[in-house]
């Protein structure tokens, strides 16, 4: 208890510490937002709740890590992960997801949960259960007498993440396929009548989602660490963000992503690093309860 | 008449099994554990239509509550759990058994109580939100307990070993699990024929209409979940004493193991039927043991694949398949079209 109070008072004594926490939070939050955007895309277009989202992220990280070990320059890991995860996403769609789209909501949740277990275990068998990362040979920038340290690698990661986000947004707004995806999300039946091959749109959307996650994972492996079983916490965070922001609300997803990143860093600072996972999950519960209270119907009874 | 013979034979098999296969006593006890958690999951998931992914929360909580009660009756809990395993804290035989019995029952009651509290907060959530919310509760509980030093933190709790002959101990735990299972079966068989059973089925079929018909849905949902939690808490408590040592993330709040297995058992056997969860649990347990023995290393991948295949291709389960093929076994009369 004393330690928690001490940690809180530290925030007020040295305001720059806040700055460091927020910078860290925003950087990691940008990557959460990417995964969450993919989730919102799949959820909105084909009404599938993908609990394997985090495992796509981790798989992308392992793809980048594997190619870097083979001598490929680290920054090329991001496009490589994008392409490889696209293919994996397409295979997963054909094998599993295409058969659960029309079913009830719990089916997709459970099927992707099984998928998440499978993917985590396959990665565990292929790459071992140790944490892995790619070390980039860049300096660290220091501000405010060394209170705030910003590794250039993280800056590169954030730049890559935001350019990927901008690319996806432009694609969704401008391209023919993006229009078809948005039309399908609005009304799949009407889209079919108007000649859109919705089956193709679904396959494309799911592959795109996997690819976005994979690229996010390739960035994560450069600035943090990955481990086969870290997937579920990324899935949970994606759900927190989407639940808080709502579907089809892109600015909301970005804001919520950055917010949860900062909230987690604050939580880890105040309560200790051991609580980081718990904080992500508790945020989910808080968001769900908040939505529930917001939408609570007034139950009236006649006595 | 035929039915009473069937049940007598079944009861005889249950009683004789641990003596006929003495090497498999622990396996059989685990099978009963699976049957109980599958049946309790079906109470809310199959009969009431609320698919929880967090029922494992009650299993873990039951373990901890049973262990803490039985320790707390004799020793100081904090110092017991942080004794660094060097200072030996002993239990007499009488202390062990009274602690175990009171702890297990206390675990059931505590879980029923927490189910009411958590249910009150989460039962407004519908469909996938309920599943994710309950999953969140289970994961959060595991993480918080792992950081709580008073209950042993990430190390978990080491309980005393069963006093006396270990083979007798295995029988003791087998019959505790089996007794809980039989009691639960009898209870559910009765419950599903009452008005209460009809009411929760109505909630599953259409909650709005059920409410309009005057069913106080929240009350029914809370009662059902509390009853399910009671039984899960009890088997959790028994598991704590059977396993001797347990830790929070992999054993107690094992979200991705037992937490998902119970759902798969129910789906494999057939959702919303009395016998489905039992058949599913037996099938699943057999498949699990076979893969564990023959696919060393890949067993988890095989189980994940089993989950995906069950959910995607075989969601009606064995009972659903039988109902489709042999409707007359279930008293469903199908109008035969006369061939002309």
Biggest β-sheet description of chain B: 2 strands, antiparallel
| Strand line-up in the sheet with most strands of chain A | 1-2
List the domain count of chain B as a whole number.
Answer: 2
> Would you report the number of β strands of chain B?
2
Task: Tally the beta strands of chain A.
Answer: 2
Question: What does it look like?
Answer:
The complex is a heterodimer of chains A (303) and B (340). Chain A is mainly alpha-helical. Chain A has one domain: ABC transporter involved in vitamin B12 uptake, BtuC, CATH 1.10.3470. Chain A has 12 helices and 2 strands, in the order αααααββααααααα. In chain A, helix 3 (53-69) crosses helix 9 (198-223). The radius of gyration of chain A is 20 Å and the shape is globular. The model of chain A has no long low-confidence stretch (mean pLDDT 83). Chain B has 340 residues and is mainly alpha-helical. Chain B has 2 domains: 28-255, no CATH class; 258-328, no CATH class. Chain B has helices at residues 2-20, 25-45, 56-72, 77-81, 93-122, 127-146, 166-191, 195-205, 207-212, 217-243, 248-252, 258-269, 276-294, 299-313, 317-325; strands at 157-158, 245-246. In chain B, helix 2 packs across helix 12 (258-269), helix 3 (56-72) runs parallel beside helix 6 (127-146) and helix 7 runs antiparallel to helix 10. Chain B is globular. The A-B interface holds A 49, 96, 99-100, 103-107, 109-111, 113-119, 121-122, 124-125, 232, 236, 239, 243, 272, 274-275, 277-278, 281-282, 284-285, 288-289, 292, 295-296 and B 51, 53, 121-122, 124-125, 127-129, 131-133, 136-137, 139-140, 143-144, 146-147, 255-256, 260, 263-264, 267, 297-298, 300-301, 303-308, 311-313, 315.
């Amino acid at each position: 208890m004393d330690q928690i109070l001490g940690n809180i008072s530290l925030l007020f004594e040295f305001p720059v510490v806040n700055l460091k926490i927020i910078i860290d939070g925003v950087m990691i939050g940008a990557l959460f937002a990417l995964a969450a955007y993919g989730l919102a895309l799949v959820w909105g277009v084909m009404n599938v709740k993908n609990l394997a989202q985090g495992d796509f992220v981790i798989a992308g990280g392992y793809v980048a890590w594997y190619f870097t070990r083979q001598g490929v320059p680290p920054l090329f890991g991001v496009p490589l992960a994008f392409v490889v995860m696209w293919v994996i996403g397409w295979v997963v769609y054909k094998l599993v997801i295409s058969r659960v789209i029309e079913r009830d909501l719990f089916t997709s949740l459970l099927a992707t949960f099984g998928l998440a277990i499978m993917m985590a275990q396959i990665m565990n068998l292929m790459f071992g259960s140790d944490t892995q990362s790619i070390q980039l040979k860049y300096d660290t920038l220091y501000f405010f007498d060394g209170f705030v340290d910003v590794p250039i690698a993280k800056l590169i990661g954030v730049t890559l993440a935001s350019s990927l986000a901008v690319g996806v947004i432009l694609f969704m707004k401008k391209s023919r396929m993006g229009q078809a995806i948005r039309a399908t999300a609005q009304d799949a039946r009407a889209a079919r009548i108007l000649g859109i091959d919705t089956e193709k749109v679904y396959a494309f959307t799911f592959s795109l989602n996997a690819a976005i996650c994979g690229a996010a994972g390739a960035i994560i492996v450069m600035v943090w660490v990955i481990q086969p079983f870290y997937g579920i916490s990324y899935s949970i965070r994606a759900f927190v963000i989407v639940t808080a922001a709502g579907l089809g609300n892109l600015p909301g997803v970005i804001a919520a992503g950055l917010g949860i990143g900062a909230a987690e860093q604050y939580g880890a600072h105040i309560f200790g690093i051991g609580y980081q996972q718990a904080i992500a999950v508790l945020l989910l519960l808080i968001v769900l309860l908040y939505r529930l209270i917001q939408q609570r119907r007034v139950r009236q009874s006649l006595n | 008449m035929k039915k009473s013979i069937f049940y007598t034979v079944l009861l005889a098999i249950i009683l004789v099994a641990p003596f006929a296969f003495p090497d498999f006593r622990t396996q059989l006890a685990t099978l009963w554990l699976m049957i109980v958690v599958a049946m309790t999951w079906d109470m809310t998931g199959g009969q009431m239509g609320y698919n929880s992914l967090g029922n494992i929360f009650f299993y873990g909580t039951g373990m901890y509550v049973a262990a803490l009660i039985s320790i707390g009756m004799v020793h100081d809990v904090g110092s017991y759990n942080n004794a660094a395993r060097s200072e030996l804290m002993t239990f007499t035989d009488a202390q062990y058994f009274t602690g175990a019995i009171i702890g297990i029952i206390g675990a059931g009651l505590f879980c029923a109580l927490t189910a009411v509290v958590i249910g009150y907060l989460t039962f407004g959530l519908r469909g996938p939100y309920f599943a994710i919310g309950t999953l969140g509760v289970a994961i959060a509980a595991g993480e918080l307990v792992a950081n709580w030093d008073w209950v042993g933190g990430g190390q978990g709790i080491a309980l005393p070993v069963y006093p006396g002959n270990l083979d007798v101990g295995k029988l003791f735990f087998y019959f505790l699990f089996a007794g809980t299972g039989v009691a639960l079966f009898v209870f559910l068989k009765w419950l599903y024929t009452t008005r209460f059973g009809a009411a929760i089925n109505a909630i599953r079929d259409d909650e709005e209409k059920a409410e309009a018909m005057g069913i106080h849905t929240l009350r029914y949902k809370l009662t059902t979940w509390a009853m399910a939690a009671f039984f899960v808490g009890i088997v959790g408590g028994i598991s704590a004493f059977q396993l001797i040592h347990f830790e929070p993330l992999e054993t107690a709040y094992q979200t991705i193991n037992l937490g998902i297995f119970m759902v798969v058992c129910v789906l494999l056997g057939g959702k919303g039927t009395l016998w489905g969860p039992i058949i599913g649990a037996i099938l699943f347990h057999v498949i699990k043991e076979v893969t564990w023995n023959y696919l060393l290393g890949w067993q988890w991948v095989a189980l994940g694949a089993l989950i995906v295949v069950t959910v995607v291709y075989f969601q009606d389960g064995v009972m659903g398949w039988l109902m489709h093929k042999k409707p007359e076994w279930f008293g469903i009369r199908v109008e035969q079209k006369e061939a002309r």
